[in-house]
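Good day; I would like, with your permission, to put a structural problem before you. What I wish to show you is a protein chain and, alongside it, a tokenised description of its three-dimensional fold. Please examine both parts with care and let me know of anything in them that strikes you as inconsistent. Thank you for your consideration; the sequence and its tokens are set out here:

***
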Amino acid sequence: MTAKQISRYQDTFNARKDAKVVERAVTHQGILATSADFASDVDMTPVFSIDLETGKVANQKQSGRCWMFAALNTMRHELADLFKLDDFELSQNYTFFWDKFEKANYFYQNVLDTAVNPITDRKVAFLMATPQQDGGQWDMLCAIIEKYGIVPKSAMPETYSSSKSSELNTTLNKKLRKDATILRQMVTDNQSDEAIAKTRDQMLSDVYRLLCYTLGEPVQTFDFEYRDKDHNYHVDRDLTPKAFYDKYVGWNLDDYVSIINAPTSDKPYNQTYTIEMLGNVLGGRPVKHLNVDMPTFKQLAIAQLQAGQSVWFGCDVGQSSDRQKGIMDLNAYNKNDLLDIDLSMTKAERLDYGESLMTHAMVITGVDLKEGQPTKWKVENSWGEKVGHKGYFVMSDRWMDEYCYQVVVNKKFLNPELQTAQAAEPKVLSPWDPMGALASH
């Protein structure tokens, strides 16, 4: 860069008639407030032709458990209807405990599998960058439930560290990295499988103790006691978490499959994909996605809503969205006009160049259809009632096109061709592929 170039840039800026007007506005209000478009508020009025009644929203507080809250919310919606429960939640802390525990064991296995690679190897660096975190995907929660079941929130309520997880994550990741140095050295020293297994077992015992201290010891049996909406008293004694799931939820989790829309050249539609080194339960349910075009993606979500069931979905929530208003709309902000800069990219370009990926999971609970086509969607968030419309958001259909990446639907809504495609062996993607992003906002 030369002084002559900079002088030319200054002259170009000062030659603009609106330069100082925009500068004054943006320096005082920031880009978002200055570019906010009032018309979006009108378009995103929260009225929908299909609107499922789902009750009060939950609050993940200062944790990255959105994927877990969203998945448990889809289950509690049906459970609450069947048993006439009011203001009911499933325990996010219970599944959080077991997810943390299983992720530690999953990390140890990945460390051992890559122990002969140099520390500068990209896979090793990827592992050490974040040994574990709060985020996850639908299949990962299914793996936890299939192994450990679930419990009502009353049986294992929130703790300081479940609601505000940064201290736990910092401490646990420090331990996991320390353990990685030990396991890698044991492999380098050609120590026996028995010795490595014994050391790993002690490491897992330490992790279990740390999680008990911070999240509480996971409940093994409990009484489920409640009054229904008609004020009738009920009690079900000595339930195990798996017995509670079987009796009160009872979903066959194999019926629920992940559908993605990733229009990148490396992921042809109507094929399945998995991601290397992504998961939590060793030997449990793997992450598996069926990639489809956007019209199919939306049609599947609508079919499940029309059947009366809400839809877990993953998106890039920070893009063109207003947290307080509860609006996700491409017209929420008009940065291009304000700044006279072309910021447009295709969905594929944003994925390929790191501009976007799935950051947050929520629940679709409604849709507004006009002549059979969606115009906007009702979204149940897990950020409490003080944002949006008592915690609910409105998502424009155009926003869904650009920033939604995943829905989970019952495979009965897939046509025969898609069912066959979904059952096929998945192509394995690199650990850092954007479709391996963990929802954690």
